[in-house]
């Protein structure tokens, strides 16, 4: 373009022509654009998706809904509510109301990431976020257990309440582990399922331990 | 007649490369010529160039709109030209940002691909893991021939996590009020710190003593050596017998240490080197088990002291179920630990 630098047009020559800038045609997925819909529709749609996944977790069948349309809203809600409920444990002591929330949060997400990495390294076919989604949603039974434990603790904190809590937590722990293995184990080569199940078992065991040893002060 | 703009001729030119910068001709009189040479897509400074150009375009447009009384078509033409130019520049900015973003994404992706470096170390079957777990308790007899160490990381990693879980479980069975968060962080930090730190240290010593072992093999060896620790702690956290703990410490801990030591000896030449390497490893491994057992009590004691004040006599909460027989052991142990604290 070096030559064009010298080009100049004298003023008495009228320059005519049509200047049209080609406008990009409207993209074909204009129909699926969700920017124009009211916020309420978006929220309701997301809530419905989350609710459907909750149902899938409570009744684990071999369905791929959890895997196909993964989202992290449900795990976030569950994690935050579990961390909030676990926080009241030492509210009276002068320190940590805060760090406890952060510890639970970090442990849940760090544990989920480690399990996901482990399953990928073992040759899993599931993607990173799908695995996070499944592990997060399967915390739901343990959140329910936490709720039950808090209610039981309101009634008293003797041996009987401990036994009730122990039974509830163990049952929900088993449910969580079974639900998540139902979704995750399929993505592994068949002879290595045990290798993937074990860290999931440990992960939910640690969460169950946190729930069981919770005592409000 | 005000300055005219040479608009983009013809339809064949499509890319932004055809458009150029403006020469500075705010004073009017001359014609505005688009100079392509100022346009440099690859340099970051073209952002500033574009910013300037955008500014100049705006000012020129303002001049145009103020002073122009010409035919509507001409104005329309010029307006469209302006809009077209601005659209093109906007597209260029977007293009730049896309390229920067893509560069960052590909960098992140290559970081992700680094996980595949670890993949061969996780290539195990459950049967192999079980065999190696059992073998970690059996000392090898043949130390004149270098023993094979499987460079696998799945088993050791799972064992470290299991140790963390057992530590937490031990705190639960003591039935004391615990600040879970701090202890959890301590447990994780202790176990991982031991596994990674002692492995690195022994690897460094092995390098000094000319032993034939790689880092991954060392990590694997020490990791499987934690199996004995897991068993010991699991049993003794549920049965609070101090003498039982000592028996387990010697037998189970000793077996796993002997195995590690034998494997290392088989890979080292020279008596002094063997002594240094194996002595260090044995000492660290056995002392770690001792530390895990007693530090747990100590940590609980420390927290209890802060919670309930110094009124409580120390070591009162330790091992409530101990029968009278081992009280003497308990007292001596308590005194010994109190001395060391």
From TrEMBL, chain A:
This protein's record includes keyword ATP-binding: no
Yip1 domain mapped to chain residues: 60-210
Transmembrane segments: 70-89, 101-122, 134-156, 162-184, 196-215
InterPro entries: Yip1/4-like, Yip1_dom
Keyword list, A-Z: Membrane, Transmembrane, Transmembrane helix
Pfam families: Yip1
Any single biological process term in GO: endoplasmic reticulum to Golgi vesicle-mediated transport
GO cellular component: Golgi membrane; trans-Golgi network
Subcellular compartments: Golgi apparatus membrane; Membrane
UniProt-recorded name of the protein: Protein YIPF
Automatic annotation (TrEMBL), chain B:
Presence of keyword Transmembrane: yes
Chief subcellular location: membrane
GO biological process, one term: cell differentiation
Segments crossing the lipid bilayer: 153-171, 183-209, 221-240, 246-266, 275-296
Coiled-coil residues: none
The keyword Transferase is assigned to this record: no
CC per GO annotation: Golgi apparatus; plasma membrane
Keyword vocabulary terms for this entry: Cell membrane, Cytoplasm, Differentiation, Glycoprotein, Golgi apparatus, Membrane, Transmembrane, Transmembrane helix
Domain of life: Eukaryota
Residue ranges of the region described as Disordered: 1-77
Subcellular localization, as worded in the UniProt entry: Cell membrane; Cytoplasm; Golgi apparatus, cis-Golgi network membrane
Residue ranges with Acidic residues bias: 60-77
The family this protein is said to belong to: Belongs to the YIP1 family.
Designated name of the protein: Protein YIPF3
Source species: Pterocles burchelli
Gene: Yipf3
